Amino acid sequence: MLRLLWLVPALPLAGFLILVILGRSLPKRWAGVIGAGSVGLSALVTFAVAGSYVGATALPDGIFVQRLWTWWTVAGLHPEIAFRLDALSLVMILVVTGVGFLIHLYSTEFMADDEGYARFFAYMNLFVASMLVLLLASNLVLLLLGWEGVGLCSYLLIGFWYQDPDNGHAARKAFVVTRVGDVALTIGLFFLFHHLGTLDVHELMTRASAQWTVGSGLATTAALLLLGGAVGKSAQLPLQTWLPDAMAGPTPVSALIHAATMVTAGVYLIARTHVLFALSPTAMHVVAIVGTLTLLMAGIAALGQRDIKRVLAYSTISQIGYMFLALGVGAWSAAIFHFMTHAFFKALLFLGAGAIIHSLHHEHDIYKMGGLRKQLPTTFWTFVAASGALAGFPLVTAGFYSKDMILGSAFSSPMGGVWLWLGGLVGAFLTGLYIFRVVFVAFYGEPERELERTPGGLIRGPLIVLGILSIVGGFIEMPGTLGGVHILTGLLHRTLPALPEHAATGTEAWLEIAASLASLAGIGLAWALFYGRRATVEGFVARPTGAALRRFAHSGLGFDWLYDTLLVRPYVWLARINRRDVVDRVVRFIGDVCLALNPALAAMQNGRVRWYAAGVVFGAVLLVGLVVF
Amino acid sequence: MTATVPVSYALFLAILLFGIGTVGLLSRRNMLFMLLSIEVMLNAAGLAFVAAGARWAQPDGQVMFFFILAMAAAEVAVGLALVLRLYHQRETLDADAADELKG
Fold it and tell me: Which of A252, A402, B35, B83 is the one with CA 20 to 30 A from A223?
């Protein structure tokens, strides 16, 4: 069954091709069937492959490589189109195809009234195909192909409703900001090839650990360049500004970009090249600090948003900050575990938000919702399950176990520390606060308006499946104090190294209690402020300091303003000064000379035969003169 | 054999004829006279060929002259036909009057 691996990215790609070529002539029904079906089949193949991978214990290093053909051969670089399956990529493709399929299924109903139905599914399929290429690539060149493909599709999908210029602007912003990171990544690849002579992941990691010592400058440079790419794609500080604006796309797109694909590409890249990062304690430390700062910053920013999708966007940034924190302290498996649970509950949150928006005339403002608990019961219960998972509600949610694993690692890992742990703990408190603020404001209170329509089965189905996954998804990995289930880490440790040592059971229990309390405190505060006494908050916001704080949080801590002032405005100013471009002047000069000579030459063409004859004579005399003298 | 005429004399005569033809071509405005001037120039070239052929005792010079004769006849036939068409159209033989092709 492992031989079927190539079908996993090939099926969505085929779906994309069919939809692009036949899209306009296909009836909507068929476009939806092809769009969702190709990803569904891909998910089935993935499950089959996963079954045989788990059974196959004889694989060398737990890696299965399927080589298809050599892409090109230039100057010693001959990347192959080859797919590499190991525990890491297996978990990733399972989530991507599984959650991706649910999102596609949901989209068939959500986008039913849209004119660009086939175009939407074509982009979505290409998105999933690119992501799968990225995950399965056995060398970094192929990974870059998927990486850029994902970037392209995010541009296309964020700007899907292209008739509104704002959406086009958001799409461009996403593309340009991630491009900054992509340049760093590309330079990183050049750097690695220059020094190690290969870009095959396995070979690269072997050579890196053989040639570079721990803490060497070369390893740090390479790791930091890769980190630059990861930071751009995963919307971490300082390149996080594109993600909240990326909400301009249709809601299933937000779910796909933020839950299953694109933004986790950075996490995957670091986990994939973990050997390199392990060689550089400095780079690891930077990763952890970036993660911690991002999760705090995004948590605060999420508190100031009114648009439900923007709350979720900042929450995504914050949760990926947790994954970076885990990567930075060497808890590779914890990061992937959190990636998995996050994919479940964040996809569910976005799809739930989409169901609300769908039912309420495209209303995004949570303060104009209210009372949806009775009107949309399925959405309400699944949304609460996902919010609980996001906030890490103790014991019964998936998010609790993954976040707890990260916090535990941040505390006990030799590369971690109390400060990182404390940052994560404050982040957990903020998470509970901002997400239950949404729950209490949007779902409780009096209904503000009539529903336009109620979601149908194709919307409710994925919500329920994801809701169940958000609850039980965490039970495959539980800490020693709570039964010690290690299914996921057992699998992942075939590929990723475990943390060297674990904290004593006593400390572990204390850490879990602290994390639970932080999360419960956040939820409780949200309940007190937004369910009980809304007036307190309104009174606070009415005061000048409160209003300023709210504006500060609403603007995402002013990063947009900062970049606007530091980069965009000076650039526009320079462009304005250089309006009469120097290079243009050189080019124009040639044109001006020609134009100046034109009248003189044109005057010579006066149509008189004798004049032309005189010209011939003059030329002949000149030639003869040249020959004779 | 009688005393021969030096070849340079013949060539000077050819240059002279060619120059007269050129000046005629450039100074005259009447089409017919321009054609006549061209004939003079052609014959000057022919004379140079014949003189050179005599100097080196080769028949090629005279052969070339025959070519020039034939060509001149053809040229006059075409040229006169064009002059006639022009005269029919414009009622004049002034070459400078036909300057529509100016740039």
Answer: A402
Q: In angstroms, how far is the first alpha carbon of chain A from the final one?
A: 89
The one-letter amino acid code at A176 reads V
Cα torsion A598, A603, A608, A611: sign: negative
DSSP for A252-276?
HHHHIIIIISGGGHHHHHHHHTHHH
Helix (H, G, I), strand (E, B) or coil at A447: coil
Degrees to nearest 5, angle at CA A234 with A411 and A363:
110
Q: What are phi and psi of A415, to 5 degrees?
A: -90, -5
pLDDT of A45 reads: 92
Interface of B with A in 22-61 (CB under 8 A): 22, 25-26, 29, 34
Q: Do A606 and B100 touch (CB under 8 A)?
A: no
Query: pLDDT tens digit string along A401-411?
Result: 888 888 888 88
Alpha carbon distance A524, A441 (integer Å): 14
Question: With an 8 Å Cβ cutoff, are A607 and B102 in contact?
Answer: yes
**Closest C-alpha among A177, A159, A93, A150 to residue A120:** A159
**What residues of B are in contact with residue A610 (Cβ under 8 Å)?**
25-26, 29, 34, 95-96
pLDDT of residue B1: 45
* Cα angle: A235, vertex A524, A474; to 5 degrees: 55
Average pLDDT over residues B45-70: 91
pLDDT tens, residue by residue, A473-523: 888 877 777 777 777 777 887 777 777 655 556 677 888 888 888 888 888
What pLDDT score does A506 carry?
Answer: 66
In 3D space, the residue among A481, A455, A461, A485 whose CA is nearest the CA of residue A473 turns out to be A485
Interface ipTM: 0.85
A451's tokens = 């529903």
Low-confidence ranges of chain A (pLDDT < 70): 259-260, 448, 500-506
